[in-house]
Write a structure and sequence with these properties.
5-stranded mixed beta sheet, Imm11, 13 strands, 6-stranded mixed beta sheet, mainly beta, globular, 2 domains, 194 residues
């Protein structure tokens, strides 16, 4: 199956902190539901002061936190195709002057995992700190025997800070013309986003 990695690095606004008052930042990376701990009405987070010239909002918002921040348009598409694979935690985004830029964004908290990476055939380096996680990728090889059924939006086992999608999800997002994202073929990925 031809899975793709979501790459949401773009020339738009950049976020550099998780919202105050919510779960700790690392918890957004471990495939667990967080909505019960999330305040009703959502949280607020702002554009990074380190990138004052970057102000544009795309459907996928760039950030240095390895979380997916998406527009309501993306949320609607994903909920239609993969409602059990993710949860959406509402955000209010504020610009560099702390003025509201949008109330229509969400953290796309991916709660589904999938074991798709062939570690024996991939050229990777495992983390010394988290030995189950891949630290560096030179050539990612996916398993040959991945069953077609399973999550459509998921964190790949051993590469949990990334998000993979099935062709069905990629096609739907592409057809809708969502902005701020590109899809990279997961099989053969060299660890680079450029």
């Amino acid at each position: 199956m031809g899975f793709s990695l979501i790459c949401d690095r773009n020339d738009g606004a950049v976020l550099d902190s998780v919202p105050d008052g919510g779960p700790e930042g690392w918890r957004y990376l471990v495939s667990e539901r967080l909505a019960a701990e999330y305040p009703p009405g959502g949280l607020l987070t702002g554009f990074s002061p380190n990138f004052p010239e970057l102000r544009k909002l795309y459907d996928f918002v760039d950030n240095i936190l390895d979380i997916r921040v998406v527009s309501d348009r993306v949320r609607c598409i994903i909920l239609e195709l993969a409602p059990d694979d993710v949860e959406f935690l509402p955000l209010t985004l504020v610009d560099h002057q702390r003025d509201v830029a949008s109330r229509d964004y969400f953290i796309m908290n991916v709660v589904a995992d999938r074991d798709v990476i062939d570690l024996d055939r991939s050229k990777v380096r495992m983390s010394h700190i988290l030995p189950e996680d891949i630290d560096r990728v030179w050539n990612l090889v996916l398993k040959d025997d991945i069953p077609p059924e399973g999550p459509r939006v998921f964190r790949p086992k051993h590469l949990r800070i990334y998000t993979m999608v099935t062709p069905t999800v990629q096609d739907a997002l592409t057809r809708a013309g969502v902005t701020g994202v590109k899809f990279l073929p997961a099989h053969g990925w060299n660890g680079k986003f450029r």
